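Meet my pick.
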Amino acid sequence: MDFYAPLSTNYAPPSTTFFILALHIAGISSILGAINIVATILNMRAPGMRLMDMPLFVWTWLITAFLLIAVMPVLAAVITMMLMDINFGTSF
């Protein structure tokens, strides 16, 4: 199966719809995991530890989680538009 947009929308087998559903579920789990990481870092620090006292590794986790929260809804919109193209004949 090829998931390149022009090929997958014109010659899509029925399994492509389930593949898009699986990508939606993976995206939702990524967003929820990122929210969990952000909440844990901001709420479960040691008493008296400021954000600038955190180790670099924790900062990388925090930035990665924020990037996931920012990007995953955009990717979900893109694959939703592909789903509409395949099943409902739209042309995004």
Summary: Residues 5-88 form one domain. The chain has a mean pLDDT of 89.
